[in-house]
Amino acid sequence: MSSTRRRFTLIELMVVISIIGLLATIVSVSVIDSLIGARQKVAKAEIRTLADAVKLFKMEYHRLPRNLDELLDPPVIGNRRRAPLLESAPIDPWDRPYLFERKGASYDISTLGASGEPGGEGEETDFRWSELKRSRTRGG
Questions:
Q1: With helix as H, strand as E and coil as C, how does 79-124 read?
Q2: At the topology level of CATH, where does 43-137 sit?
Q3: Residue pLDDT, tens place only, 3-26
Q4: Residue 94 pLDDT > 70, yes or no?
């Protein structure tokens, strides 16, 4: 009996390794895109939550907060200390504080996305309460 062993050729091994590399690339790109989308959804949801806290503050104190920290430590009215409107300091998904800007009787809350710089697309997209509010009223 002759025992013949079949061995893989170098070309067959290269083809298999190339296919595995291609599949790994496709999967990693898909996972990265999902993570980017998840961070952006979290940022939008947190901005909406912060806007709700600002509305509650305005109803309680008849003015806008000076900054978002005032939602953590609201002012004392008479001798009554109110409960905080937030449990912790708001940090965006990219580990930076949300930005709060007073505009007269109005305000805006924003995050500058992954870049931390104004403007950008994709992962670097900025999100602002004023824009999210408008898109919500338009059905977006």
A1: CEECCCCCCCCCECCCCCECEEEEECCEEEEEECCCCCCCCCCHHH
A2: Glycoprotein, Type 4 Pilin (3.30.700)
A3: 667 787 888 888 999 999 988 888
A4: yes
